[in-house]
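User: hey, got a sec? need SAF domain-containing protein folded
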Amino acid sequence: MMSRILIAAQRLRKAGVYAMALAAGLVSAWAVREHVQQRVQALEAEARTPVVSRLVAAYDLPAGTQLEEVHLAVREIPEQWVSRASIDPLDLASLLGATLLADVANGEPLLRGNVTFNPPAPALASRLRSGQRALTVAAADLGGLADVLRAGDAIDIYVSFAHRQRELTVPLLQGMRVLMVGGEADAEGKGGNITLAATPDEAMRFVAARQAGVLTALLRHRDDAAVVSGTPQSDLASLIGLDLEPRTVPGVSILYGDRLESRGAEGALDMSMQAGSKKDRP
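Assistant: Yep! Here you go:
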């Protein structure tokens, strides 16, 4: 009986040793696993970069685009790379309706400095039609009318010049559209510049007329497309109805022997009267 008890005690002792060894192994494995997981998490935390959400272009947007929701998207960007001028998605409502001042590529963050609610005036070249040029002239060349001109006005330009000993005034350019009015005045307070839309031919005619004559501008209605034809009688005397200079009577040629002499009509008339008086003498 005692021997059986001793044998059972020895078996229990051995089983306890095995159980303790197994438990120690399990505890060691668990401890190693926890240590590894904690180390991995620590490394991941060190490698993980904080990100923030920002508004970006949903696709390539050219300058001048008026922003709407379809133009924008939300993208997470590493916090260390985010510009202070970037826009949070929560501020979307304050961005709608703004105009882009520069091109924005697809996925590129929108910056507050690149948008405005007061779009700049369009470029001067955008107001020109195909084949036109911007002709800048001194306001003094157009007379006093230049002081009251505004962009969008239409003017006719006349030129006065001397031609074959006559002072003529003829229409030079008609329906010229004013693109811009501005510029610095000269020391006498006159001036500034007027920019007109002109074809190359019109520009050359204006430059030539400015060198050779006196220019005068007349304001016309914007919708007036009538063309003023140049009249052949464009000197002052003809325009106000004065008689032209008397026509000269062609002279009469008289042959004296071998000598040819020319006299005017008045001289010829005197000679005829003298010849008649001689015939009347007895």
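Quick note: The first helix runs from residue 2 to 47. Let me know if you need anything else on SAF domain-containing protein.
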